[in-house]
Amino acid sequence: MTHSTDSLQQLTQALAHFAAERHWQPFHSPKNLASALSVEAAELLEHFQWLTEDQSRALPADKKEAVAFEMADVLLYLVQLSSALEVDLLEAARRKMVLNAKKYPVDRARGSNVKYDEL
Amino acid sequence: MTHSTDSLQQLTQALAHFAAERHWQPFHSPKNLASALSVEAAELLEHFQWLTEDQSRALPADKKEAVAFEMADVLLYLVQLSSALEVDLLEAARRKMVLNAKKYPVDRARGSNVKYDEL
Amino acid sequence: MTHSTDSLQQLTQALAHFAAERHWQPFHSPKNLASALSVEAAELLEHFQWLTEDQSRALPADKKEAVAFEMADVLLYLVQLSSALEVDLLEAARRKMVLNAKKYPVDRARGSNVKYDEL
Amino acid sequence: MTHSTDSLQQLTQALAHFAAERHWQPFHSPKNLASALSVEAAELLEHFQWLTEDQSRALPADKKEAVAFEMADVLLYLVQLSSALEVDLLEAARRKMVLNAKKYPVDRARGSNVKYDEL
After folding, report:
1. What span, in angstroms and rounded, lies between the C-alpha atoms of B7 and B3?
2. Which Gene3D superfamilies does the protein's record reference (chains A, B, C, D) (predicted)?
3. ipTM of the complex in this document
């Protein structure tokens, strides 16, 4: 699968086919998919929990590979959830960035790690 | 932003610019981004925690909108983490799907919610 | 350890000794302990992610045992975090219950799964 | 509630009463309680996500208070889940510590942040 038009769209279709072949739809309620997604997000975090921030910026190759697969797991559930709920992921992400630009205006947010309601 | 070539690529660049404008790179260690991602995954899950599976399959419009924004938040951190670690998200997802096909062969996994090490 | 005065107190001391013996204090910043706690909470959730709510109310004995150990893991990190931050867990829990009683008055909250800011 | 015999036991009873008064038992399947617990664990983690480890070791008083309440939330759901599943939390924690002592023998685990299967 090395087409130059590879995209979330193709991944979405491949995942729908994968689950249908295995008759997994009954288990794939949005509630369950959201649970599975958060479990994968925690498996991703687990790779970093005892590392310092500096160590996390310089991962050895094998660790980076394991982390890449956890990130893939998160994306796979995110895409399946977007199918189940008929949510356009990229469109939602773009709209959220517009909101974030208002919540974190450059002049007030620069260099700050403070949450928007305390800016 | 309604080009037919909209993709993760453009989102990645927009996010890099957003963070650079705000001088947020010092806070964006992979360790911190992984934490933020799991926090957003939990905010997504929170919308479903008291719903039944059937209710989760029939979300009212306002709830679906809120959920779409949480999914966007997860994607935004996933993309920022992929930049920080130089991980190709779609490529990792495709490779993971190949692995998953081996872990869950159709004949053995059909109709089953059992984890691969117990199949 | 089967004294009738067994309590969180004794667990707290046993954990402090366990970590000190292994020179783990440098890794046990509150930031890291909070990460580890959320990772364990997700491992607990993983046991339920594909089960229905009814199945979760009738766990087979081996599954219940595995779940008990995940709950233990969560408690162990919660206690270590309370030591690191000098937080009295039971006292905080009691104060939080007083707050919860105000957020969810019986007459308005009865039979409802709605969050307090929407009651 | 300031008895010197305050314990998890009393908290357990108080929580059972609180939920019964509000007719919340239908929502409190173990599956849902485990979800709620992981959501609270993430709210706890959120307080630390942009802090450095050193900053997390020196929290200002107001931040420490907010964190104490999140820890309380985690404990409250952990206790409710232990009631729902009839799991003795302290006993499970003690048994898990015995297992952990075997997984992380002092001589091999000292000063190491490596997971037991890589020790």
Report:
1. 9
2. MazG-like (1.10.287.1080)
3. 0.93
The helix-helix angle for D30-46 and C61-85 (nearest 10°) equals: 20
Residue D51's nearest CA partner among C111, C29, A12 is C29
Among chain B residues, the shortest Cα distance to D52 is held by B27
For residues C49 and C56, what is the distance between their CA atoms, to the nearest angstrom?
Answer: 10
pLDDT, tens digit (0-9, with 9 covering 90-100), for B46-60 = 999 999 999 999 999
- pLDDT greater than 70 at residue C37: yes
| The token pair that represents B90 in the structure block | 């779609």
B21, B72, B82 ranked by CB distance to A93: nearest: B72
Residue type, D108: R
Position C62 in a domain:
no
Q: Give a yes or no: residue D97 inside a domain.
A: yes
> Nearest chain C Cα to A26, which residue?
C50
Which one of A29, A92, A100 has the shortest CB-CB distance to B53? A29
Q: How far apart are CA A92 and CA A83, in angstroms?
A: 13
Q: How many CB atoms are located within 10 Å of the residue B106 CB? A: 11
How many structural domains does chain C have?
1
Whole-Å CA distances, A88 to A78, B67, D83: 11, 12, 40
Neighbours of chain C (3+ CB pairs under 8 A): A, B, D
Domain span at residue D98 reads 88-119
The reply to whether the predicted model has a pTM over 0.90 is yes
Q: Please give the structure tokens belonging to residue C33.
A: 């302990």
Please list every residue in chain D whose beta carbon sits closer than 8 Å to the beta carbon of residue A44.
none
How does pLDDT run across A49-96, given as a tens digit for each residue?
999 999 999 999 999 999 999 999 999 999 999 999 999 999 999 999
